[in-house]
Amino acid sequence: MSNTDTRKTEGSRRRVDVIVVGAGFAGMYATYRFREMGKSVVGVEAAGDVGGVWYWNRYPGARCDLMSVDYSYGFSEEIQQEWTWSEQFASQEEILAYANFVADRLDLRKHYNFNTRVVSAVWDDAARLWRATTDSGETLEAPFCIMSTGPLSIPKDPDIAGIDRFKGQLLRAQKWPHTPVSFEGKRVGVIGTGSTGIQIIQTVGRQAVELFVFQRTPSFTLPMRNHKLEPDYVAEMKRHYPAMREAMRNNPTGGTRPATSRPYFSLPPSQRLQAMEQAWINGGHTFLGSFADLLTNQEANDQVADFVREKIGEIVKDPKVAEALKPRGYPIFARRPCLDTEYYETYNLPNVHLVDVASDPIVEITEKGIRTQSGETELDILIFATGYDALTGALLAFDVVGRNGRTLKEKWKSGARSHLGIMIEGFPNLFATGGPNGPAALANLITIAEHDVDWIADMITYMEANGLATVEPTPEAEEAWMKLVVSLAERSLIRKANTWWVGANVKGKPQGLTMFLGGFHKYRELCAAAAQDRSSQFVFDRARESAAA
Ligand code: N01
To answer: pLDDT tens digits for 321-344?
Structure first.
């Protein structure tokens, strides 16, 4: 079949070489990479177009808190030369425009079925292929299936009674309308003060007649200090892109932020303070790059947290509000650190009201607004910025059935297990990009996507060169990877906060840190080592009959 033939044929079966689920940055690159290998590729995407999380998250103030030159593809010198970022931290509009530019430039859309969901993906061991059935009634068959479903793609409503009763406008950050929303003259409520809520609050607080922030857990947020990029800087960047991408591949965050090996207490107190002041002035995630042990040394972490709490106290004029905004009870950086633009200053505006629902809990959503224990707040618009069923949610949202009829839900009932975050024992020829137990939430997702897709492409090339039909990790290799993931997690302060990072935000979800905390550079080394050690880490189809592939 032609590698461009991806027409939707209802009720039909279609055989291709590779199925790619998702048209975010990982899925787009996978589609391109496998097409360039001469494979027939079909992509399936629930959204109406490319962009993944940036297609859906059109809420006011949406912006990436990784630097735009970092958060972009490095695989094509042409693309990085042709595209010019306008800001240090790009807006959702600009990132989505970039995704569209890449899709046009590489002619990717023709491979995709948009507005289409996979409802099941079933492995046929006799035929050695995956059968993915979509909600359009089509069944796609392919020996290889790539799950580029995204770590943050299944939105989560708050567990509050009465959501359906609300008669005003209910908006979800992660499914924002494509038409403009006006807040002028409106009383607006926001539930959620993570990265998403913070971006909404600092923007809508300057537009609505009244803004009520229903805060259960305050986040630590640091100044983003975003700015326009000067043409000279952009030109310099473009000259050095190849070296920069190489540096990113060898960096713990998969970005350009400099890493340090300096422990917090290696400096005298005055220099520590100076370093923190400088990090505050520089903005972005420079704090995390200032000291090596902020996520392993509780005392160091406490001192940095105190420093940020002091800053909150200096900015927010009402001492009661300032106190309520100061995060306590969990280590700084153990929740995903947020970057903001005058977030704390927003609470100095007379129309912005903080409702501390930790001390005055939400009882229900009513027809008119929100009732907390102390009374009802009437609202015209209510916004949920309440996060995601992250990391595993998208892979468990439909039936994935592996060898011997075993489902992924069954395999992961006590927590997600995988080898390298890419492959799963019992699920041959199934690959995830940015999957659970990889470095997904802690490093640049585009760098991870490129790495994972290249690793998968190398594996498939090796299999073809050696006449191998199927591959899956050995139980021992998966177990060893999981032990490493858990042992790194045990040393980190991250497990001390109740966040989506540990699955704490979803009722009934197995708790635990399903992320590789060793840094992207180390992850890359370990993936390369696994690829060298193929015959002991993976079972290939012929390996089951004879000794090794
Ligand atoms: O979600 P979250 P998010 N009553 O889970 C609150 C990425 N991202 O969408 O902590 C009251 O962090 C909940 O409170 P609590 C980034 O990786 C990146 O903001 O459960 N509140 C919390 O405050 C980020 O980490 C960018 O007490 C309720 C909030 O909802 C990830 O996405 C921008 C509640 C959820 O926070 C997720 O961030 C945006 C209830 N019943 C997002 N239920 C970039 O800039 C939930 N909450 C790249």
So the answer is: 999 999 999 999 999 999 999 999
- Ligand 1 midpoint to CA 3 (Å): 40
CA atoms within 13 A on the CB side of 482: 17
Backbone angles phi, psi at 216, to 5 degrees: -95, -45
Is 484 within a domain? yes
Residue 9, pLDDT score: 53
With 0.85 as the threshold, say if the pTM is over it.
yes
**CA distance linking residue 375 with residue 362, whole number of Å:** 9
Domain count along the chain: 1
Mutate to test the pocket of ligand 1, among 196, 214, 355 (most ligand atoms within 8 A of CB): 196
Three-state helix/strand/coil letters over 306-327: HHHHHHHHHHCCCHHHHHHHCC
* 194 CA closest ligand 1 atom index: 19
CATH number at residue 42: 3.50.50.60
| Residue 501: inside a domain | yes
**Does 493 map to a domain?**
yes
> What distance in angstroms lies between residue 493's CA and the mean position of ligand 1's atoms?
19
C-alpha angle 140-31-27 in degrees, rounded to nearest 5: 90
Q: For residue 10, what pLDDT is reported? A: 56
The domain in which residue 43 lies consists of: 13-154+390-548
**Which ligand 1 atom is nearest residue 339's CA?**
45
Q: Hey, what's the torsion of the CAs at 155, 161, 162, 168, to 10 degrees? A: -50
200 located within any domain: no
| pLDDT confidence of residue 543 | 38
Residue 7 has pLDDT above 50, yes or no: no
Ligand 1: centre distance to CA 37 (Å): 39
